[in-house]
Every structure is written in structure tokens, then in C-alpha cells.
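User: Predict the full complex structure for these chains.
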Amino acid sequence: MVRDALGVGVAVGLSGFAFGVTSAGSGLSLAQTCVLSLFVFTGASQFALVGTLGAGGNPAAAVAGALFLGVRNAFYGLRLSHLLRLPGPVRPLAAHWIIDETSAVAMAQPDRASARLGFTVTGVTLYALWNLTTLLGALGAEALGDPSAWGLDAAGPAVFLALLGSMLKGRQETLVAVLAVVLALACLPLLPAGVPVLVAALAAPIVLTVARREEARP
Amino acid sequence: MTVWIAVAVTALGCYAIKLLGLSVPAGLLERPLVRRLAALVPVAMLAALTAIQTFGSGRELVVDARAAGLAAAAVALLLRAPFLVVVGAAIVVTAAVRALTG
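Assistant: Here is the predicted structure of the two-chain assembly.
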């Protein structure tokens, strides 16, 4: 488990590189880029914010998109508060580390003790590496040129896919994932950045509602 | 200046969202429907993020080198490769396809 947690931390930490390069390329200063990784610390929201700002988007819309993307962390927190049962004083600290990767590692553990360990190891590794590589990426942006030439733009979706893979445990999960992909891709050309992901989240209640109706049928 | 404001509001907002989820009373979670929903919403969002970041380019859908990279990652996942190998496969294949197709 520790090896898995370290693996997740290292892999995602490396994608901080991609963020540093992208953020600097979007016109954000070194300080702004590093503050984002230190205090926002949720990759998808950070990418969304600098992407929209870099494309000349309205700052309010950029912030809204980033916050929308961050909403899923509240759902992770909902699950983790039950799973980890953290004592009160630790909670405000732990909250900052509630992201896709730490949640996925914690949820994949068989009991509370290893869930806590997984959450902590992933959180610490990821926070240190994400911030270090953000700094290096922003500093090295000019030398590196276009991040997509290095395939770094595939790091984000590959991380999401790997996390998703560990969650697809049954038929209902698979149905939700398929419906979410269809909804997201259908909405992408129609709605502002960040909103299609929220629409796709509706796949969960939709599948649950349909499943309940089928159960209720005589 | 406006960029700094955007950075600050995003940081505060994202933290508040995280803390909110963690602070919701435990009683709410004892309901099976809420628990099931909380388990399935991340599945939906991760699937959507994967699709959008693979096929999205601004507000257009495209199939480019990233699709090949993600296919490689999917194969690695099916072969039960470690996390680092899955992400590495996506990066290497994406870069290679891009280099080959110019």
C-alpha cells in the first residue's frame, strides 16, 4: 500500500511540472504560479484557472470554472469523514489534502488504519512534489518550450483514468462512468469550460434513480 | 492585480469546499442513498475529466496524439501495471505519436 501511495504521489507530483510550464506559458508570474500550487492544491482547478486566464477569459468566469471543478472535493470529503473519522483539530489541516489522488488511495484501503496511512503518505508526497515540480516547471518553461511536445498534456487524463480504474468495481460504477463520458463530451462544445464536468456528475443520481425504479418494479 | 484576486479567491474557495465536505455531520452519511451517491459522483467526475482532457481542445472535440496515449494507459491498466507505468505510457506514447505525425 505504501508503495502504491508513493507511486501515486510521484506520478502526480511529476505532472506538477506540466502545471508549472502551462501556468508560466499562460502569462502568470512565478509567484502566482507557486501560490496556486501551495494554496489551491487541486490540479484540475489550477489547470482550468490558468487555461481560461491565458486564453484571455473573464477572471470571474475563470474562478467560477475552477471552483466548479473543486466541488467534487466536497464529495470526497463527505466519504473521507466517514472513512477516516479524523479528530477535530486535525480536520482543518487534512481538508487541504483532500483531492482526487489522496481520496482514491484512502478509499481503496481495506480498513481505517491503512486508509489513514494511505491518505497521509499520498498527501505528503504529493504536496511536496507538486509544489517543487510546479516551481521547476515555471522556471524551466522557457527552456522547455511547448509542454505538449513532450506529451505532458497526457499526464492529467492518464492520472484520472488510473484513479477511475481502481473505482470501477461493479456494473453500476461502469454505467455511471459511461454515461458521464457521454454527457461530458456532448456538453463540451455547448457549455463554458468547467460546466460539462458538473453536468456529467448528474450521471450518478440518474443511474441510481433508474436502478431504484427497476428494483421497485413488481 | 486582477490575476492575484482570481488566485486568492480560487484558493479560499477551493479550501472552503474541501473543508465543507469534511465537516458535514456524520448523521447525513448514515443514509444508504447519500453514501451510494457520494461513492458514485467521483466515478462520474473522473470519467468526465478523463474524456474532456483527452478529447477536448478549447470547446472542440478532437482525436489527436493524446487519444493514443490514453489508449496505451488503458492497456497498461488492464495489464495491472503500477500507477507510474500507466502515466508514463501515456506521456511517452503521446510524445512519440506527436513526433511521428509532426
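Chain A has a mean pLDDT of 84.
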